């Protein structure tokens, strides 16, 4: 069977049919919603458009074609939009498919957020990042739904990266509340609400801790509502129930999956919406709460601040007591609450259906018309990658001073760090000047700690940049979270430096680096600088200056 072509006028390289590929098409899933939305837009613009998937929900059966059929049914006039968010095992199929291709990246959750609870899911997340790199040579361009996600595409070397607005069907939220559940919950208690699957990356356990602190310190007559899939038989599900008993908070309700009417009932009685998620490529429930007039208080990790767009509260701390204090201030200041709700409504208005559809069309148009230019080849540093996560935030710290000395001795190298003040409206990584030194600053997965002595967070985009690099990498310090995440995936040789005044926090780092792990005395840095430079030159990684 051949896919019917559109009658739309097109240039020689323009697509006549534009299809989508997704590993699984699920009803009500954020990725699935975007896939169906894009299909309707593409058809309204005159393109033949089908959805191909490897798996699908029964409700989606009429909407989908088997992914295995795509290479046979497509031709050189076909264009394929590939949605990527989890391990798909579809890269070989994509490689042998005719026609032009592009990626929509919904982001992949860092594997470490599942460690200790979901080993297979953690492995699948690692595999999904491998697939992201494997698809890069196969596509012409890539889009993301946040600048946070787009930064990782840039770091991976994808050509023509841009951001698409996320389309939300606001009408789906206009459902009358379930009267029985609403009557049960509207009993004078102040209700905190979280909506989402109970998986480790969402940190529902931290929502429990925040609620417990709020109930004990500020609002004893309160209730916590957690609406979303929760499997009590999984390690994380069992952990949540055990934590609930240990904390001893009253009126905690795990509602599980709820109907649209039941969800409307939850929002209708909610005093505030609370999210402690450690990773979001966008975050639809945040906007749903805003649309429904519920104040949002969220931990500002990953793309959460960008999704909120300056409305609500995107906290720089995940400390339960401080989060509880924010909720108490909000509850006791009606004027502040009204101001917050008004700002949230203004944010929602920015994502109106017509404006989003036009912006999506503008974003897709160069690919659809085949007018993208071939990207110019990037340049790789001739020295090494010096990775010092805390350099921009603490330029006078001993490790930062060591990084500065190494930059002086290693010409052509680049210093990579975490951006202490990422700006959601700027597409990173950014070039910064810190103390007269030019550095590349990447967005951290979580806000940087206020206490410089605490461990710095990881960075998905910086990790990806290192995985695509072909020159040696030096980690300062060797046992940073970033080093622990990245070392297993580096193809080029890696080195590390550890501070002798502090114990090595990750013994496996020492095992991986072996003799490439050097020690550093903050009072006498020169021996370490000389030893590292000599060792790099001895391996041929550096040319003698």
Automatic annotation (TrEMBL):
The keyword Transferase applies. Keywords: Transferase. Pfam families: Glycos_transf_1. It comes from the Bacteria. Residues 192-345 form the Glycosyl transferase family domain. The keyword Transcription regulation does not apply. This is Glycosyltransferase involved in cell wall biosynthesis. It comes from Archangium gephyra.
């Amino acid at each position: 069977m051949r896919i019917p072509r559109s009658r739309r006028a097109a240039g020689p390289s323009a697509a006549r049919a534009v299809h989508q590929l997704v590993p699984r098409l699920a009803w009500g899933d954020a990725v699935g919603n975007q896939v169906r939305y894009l299909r309707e837009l593409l058809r309204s613009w005159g393109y033949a458009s089908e959805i191909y998937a490897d798996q699908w929900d029964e409700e989606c059966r009429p909407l989908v074609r088997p992914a295995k059929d795509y290479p046979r049914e497509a031709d050189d006039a076909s264009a394929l939009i590939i949605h990527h968010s989890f391990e798909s095992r579809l890269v070989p199929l994509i490689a042998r498919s005719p026609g032009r291709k592009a990626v929509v990246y919904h982001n992949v959750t860092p594997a470490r957020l599942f460690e200790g609870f979901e080993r297979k899911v953690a492995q699948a997340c690692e595999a999904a990042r491998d697939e992201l790199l494997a698809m890069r040579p196969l596509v012409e361009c890539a889009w993301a739904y946040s600048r946070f996600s787009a930064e990782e595409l840039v770091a991976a070397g994808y050509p023509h990266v841009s951001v698409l607005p996320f389309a939300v069907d606001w009408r789906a939220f206009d459902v009358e509340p379930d009267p029985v559940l609403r009557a049960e919950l509207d009993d004078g208690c102040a209700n905190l609400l979280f909506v989402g699957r109970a998986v480790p990356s969402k940190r529902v356990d931290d929502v429990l801790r925040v609620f417990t602190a709020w109930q004990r310190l500020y609002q004893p007559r309160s209730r916590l509502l957690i609406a979303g899939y929760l499997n009590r038989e999984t390690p994380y599900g069992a952990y949540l129930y055990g934590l609930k008993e240990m904390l001893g908070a009253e009126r905690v309700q795990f509602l599980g999956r709820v109907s649209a009417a039941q969800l409307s009932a939850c929002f209708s009685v909610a005093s505030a919406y609370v999210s402690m998620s450690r990773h979001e490529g966008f975050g639809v429930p945040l906007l749903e709460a805003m649309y429904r007039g519920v104040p949002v208080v969220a931990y500002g990790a990953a793309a959460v601040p960008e999704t909120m767009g300056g409305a609500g509260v995107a906290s720089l701390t995940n400390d339960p007591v401080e989060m509880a204090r924010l909720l108490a201030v909000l509850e006791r200041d009606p004027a502040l609450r009204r101001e917050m709700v008004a700002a949230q409504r203004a944010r929602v208005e920015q994502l109106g259906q017509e404006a989003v559809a036009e912006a999506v069309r503008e974003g897709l148009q160069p690919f659809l018309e085949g007018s993208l230019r071939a990207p110019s080849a990037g340049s790789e540093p001739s020295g090494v990658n010096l990775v010092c996560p805390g350099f921009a935030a603490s330029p006078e710290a001993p490790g930062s001073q060591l990084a500065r000395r190494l930059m002086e001795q290693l010409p052509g190298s680049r210093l990579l760090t975490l951006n202490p003040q990422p700006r959601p409206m700027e597409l990173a990584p950014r070039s910064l000047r810190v103390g007269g030194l030019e550095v590349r600053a990447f967005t951290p997965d979580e806000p940087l700690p206020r206490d410089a002595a605490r461990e710095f967070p990881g960075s998905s985009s910086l990790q990806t940049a290192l995985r695509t690099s072909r020159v040696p990498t030096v980690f300062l310090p060797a046992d940073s979270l970033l080093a622990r995440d990245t070392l297993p995936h580096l193809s080029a040789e890696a080195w590390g430096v550890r501070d002798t005044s502090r114990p090595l926090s990750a013994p496996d780092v020492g095992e991986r680096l072996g003799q490439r792990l050097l020690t550093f005395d903050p009072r006498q840095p020169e021996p370490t600088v000389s030893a590292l430079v000599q060792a790099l030159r001895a391996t041929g990684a550096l040319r003698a200056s």
